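Materials and Methods. Structural model of Phosphopantetheine adenylyltransferase. The 165-residue sequence of Phosphopantetheine adenylyltransferase from Mesotoga infera was retrieved and submitted for structure prediction as follows.
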Amino acid sequence: MGEALIFMKAVYPGSFDPITYGHIDLIERSSKIFDEVIVLVMENFNKKHFFAHEERMRMVRLAVSHIHNVTITTHSGLLVDFARDNDVNVVIRGLRAVSDFEMELQMAHANKSMLSDLETLFLMTETSNSFISSSMVREIASFGGDISKWVPPCVKDEFKRKLGK
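The predicted structure was written out as tokens:
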């Protein structure tokens, strides 16, 4: 009685170059845990992307349009600055394999040292998505392979348009 209701929001950052069913699975599962999930399409000017920023934003919007409590936005600075400016205290990160954990752990510790209230929640991917990566999808698509098992139709269409296939 008399307990305050807490509005919980989390951020799921990534380059999403492109968004895959693995990403979408994590977003769907996170949307059941948090009141709001912010999918943050990061713009890293030191990284070469296959898809332009607006293309990535469009694909993410289309791919998660069925989830009512998801917001898509962008950021080009430090994740901790975005979290601080938007009152976000939880970062969602997906783990496909043990090899992902070391890098993700380092990032989580660095973020926590810069913003002590920021927690990182690691979610394991579903087994069926455990091998999917954006780089694998890009490589298979570039050789004309079928990527429809790993990405939504909007991403497949974007590859066709971009590659002229």
